[in-house]
Amino acid sequence: MDLTIGEVAERSGLSVHALRFYEKEGLFANPVRRTATGRRVYHSEDVEWLAVCTKLRSSGMSLAAIRQYVELARQGAGNEKERLSLLRAHEEQVLARIRELHECLSVIRYKVGIYESALDRGEANELWNPSHTEPVGLTGTTEDCHRAAV
């Protein structure tokens, strides 16, 4: 079934501008066809690919890496190991980011606990006092965040 750019925008959640950008950057798995009058014509497979593409992008894969993956896929059989290598490398990056986010969440939960406890004890005024200096030796690590009073 043929789809217009507006229909693809609606189904994919991407703007018309973003779809044009993706096309210009060579990020569609299949070249976008045009009618005799120059209007873009899409297929449901394009929408399915865009769902994958937006997940790759929102998980931090660079446009260059997505383009490389698309180019390999367009070449067809014989480069599956290269495609798998790209996906595995991105998977490792995503897993590293998840670990980092878990550390951030741990710090946030710790700080929430400090604030809840101080508020429950009626000692909230001790949480932030600009006249107090920061603890010596803070380097911005998770452990430092746990030690900091603020």
TrEMBL record:
It comes from the Bacteria. SUPFAM superfamilies: Putative DNA-binding domain. SMART domains: HTH_MERR. InterPro entries: DNA-bd_dom_put_sf, MerR-type_HTH_dom, MerR_fam. This is MerR family transcriptional regulator. Residues 1-72 form the HTH merR-type domain. The keyword Secreted does not apply. Keywords: DNA-binding. The keyword Kinase does not apply. It comes from Hamadaea flava. It holds the Pfam family MerR_1.
